[in-house]
Amino acid sequence: MLEGALAALRHLPRDHNTLETGIDVRIELRHALWPLGEFTRILSHLSEAEELAVSLADQRRQARIGIYKTVSLYAMGDYGAATHSVRHALTIANALDDLPLRIEATFRLGQLHHTTGDYARAAEVLGRTSSWLTGDLARERFGMALVPSVFCRTYLMWCLAESGDFAEGGRLAEQTLELAEAVQHPYSLAFALFGVAMLCVRQGVLQQAILLLERARRIGQESQLTVLLTFIDALLGYAYAFDGRAREGADLLDEAVKQTATIGMTPNHARNVTWLSEALLMAGLPAEARQQAMLAREVADNRGERGVHAHVLRLLGEIMTTRELFDADASLEHYQRAMALSTELGMRPLVAHCYLGLGKLYRRTGKREQAQEHLATATTMYREMGMTYWLEQAEAEATGLA
Which pTM was predicted? Predict the structure, then answer.
C-alpha cells in the first residue's frame, strides 16, 4: 500500500505539499520495514526522504530522518556512519532548540559510544540526557519505542557496570525500575528489568539477575517483544551458566544467537557469541568455546566494539589454560592484551578478571611470586567493587598458595 502511494506520488507535480507527503510516506515505509529487518531498503527510502527535506529546507524533518538513518546504520553495525548521521541531527536539533529531537539524538550518540567501548564518554552523554528526563518528562515517549528516561538510564547503568561503579549503578537501577513500573509500558519495563539484570550479572549477583530476567521474559512473551526476547534469553543463558547450569545456559544462548542472526540485529551479536563461548567453556567444551570466541573476536574487531573485544581476549586467555588446549604463552599474551585494552577503556571489573586469570596461570606454571602478586591485586579490586562471587574465587586461589 505504501509502496503504491510512493509510486503514485512520482506522477504528481513536485510542489511543496507533494514533496512533504513523499517524505512522510518514506518515513512510514521505514516503520513498516523495520520489523522485517529490511535495513538496506529503509536506508534507501530515508536517503530519498532526506534529499526532499533538504530541497524544502525543512530542518526538523532533516533531523528526524537523520535519527532514523542512525538507528538503521546502528542495526547494521556501521557505527562510524551512524555517528556522523546522529551528530548532524543533533546539530540541527540544538539549532532549532527542539527538546524531543535533542533527547533522542543525544541518547543515540551515547548508545553508539557505549557500543564502541567508549564508556566514559557514553556515561557523560547519557547522564546529561537522563538529567533532562525528570518530573513529567520522565514519563514522555517522544515518539520512541521505549520511554527515553528508562532507555537512557539503562544504558548508563551498563556503562557503570563496565567501569565497576556498582554502588552508583545500584542506585540508578532502583530509580530506573521505579520509573518503568510507573509508566506501565511493557516494553520499557522488560527492558529495564533486562538492564538491571545486566548490572547484576557483571557484579556476580546471579540469583537476583535470574529472577529479573525470568520476569522480563514473561513480559516479553506476553507482549510479543521478539527482538528484546533474544537479548533476554542470551543474558539468561549466561546467568544460568554461572549458576551451575552451563549446558542449559549454552543451549539457550545458542538459540538466542541464531535468532539474533535471523532478525539481522548486528549490535550485541559479538557480545552474545562471547557469552556462548564462555558457557561452552563452563560446560567442559573448550574446543567449541575457542571456535566461538575466535568468531566473536573477529566480529568485534571488524565493527570496532572495543569493550567486547577486551572481554573476548580475556576469555581466550582462560580457554588456553584448559587441559585440552593448554598453551601458557598464548594464554599470557591474551591476558596481557585484554588487560591493556580494558585498562585503557576503564573496565575495572575486567581488569580484575585479568589479574585473577594471570594469577591462576602463574600458579599453574610454578611462578609463585607472580601468582601471589596478581591474586592479591584481584582480591583487592573485587573487594572494593563488591564483587563477592569472584572475590571468593580469588581468595580460594590465594589460599592454595599459602
Answer: 0.94
